[in-house]
């Protein structure tokens, strides 16, 4: 829920600042450019972190397989098998029930 709120607020701030760029031509343009740039950077940092979670979690299965699992006892092998089965589906951060947050999502929001 917090991620949905954060993503919504950042999207609205970007849209508001871009509308303000089009509407006005005053002396505060440097402030507006700086503020918009910081909002976009914040959006990309949020998306990058979510993307890293997805990428790293998809490598867990390979890391377990590449370990010396065959030298472990039967109980440990069973636990590692469960870990590998769960790691087949990567962890993701979702923006409410709408979509999964990735780098592509942030680019889509900032471009459109």
Please characterize this protein's 3D structure:
This protein is mainly alpha-helical and 112 residues long. It has one domain. It has five helices and two strands. A two-stranded antiparallel ribbon has the order 1-2. Strand 1 (94-95) and strand 2 (99-100) form a beta hairpin. Helix 1 packs antiparallel against helix 2 and helix 3 runs antiparallel to helix 4. The longest helix has 30 residues, at 29-58. The two termini are 23 Å apart. The model has no long low-confidence stretch (mean pLDDT 82).
Give the key terms.
single chain, 112 residues, mainly alpha, 72% helix
Note the main sheet. 2 strands, antiparallel
Overall pLDDT confidence: 82
Strand arrangement, major sheet: 1-2
Oligomeric state, counting identical vs distinct chains: single chain
The percentage of residues in β strands lies in: under 5%
Q: Helix amount, in percent?
A: over 70%
Number of domains: 1
Any idea what the radius of gyration is?
21 Å
Secondary structure tally, helices: 5
| Morphology call | rod-shaped
pLDDT below 50 for ≥5 consecutive residues: which ranges? none
Number of strands: 2
The SSE order reads: HHHHEEH
End-to-end C-alpha gap: 23 Å
Structural class, by secondary structure, is mainly alpha
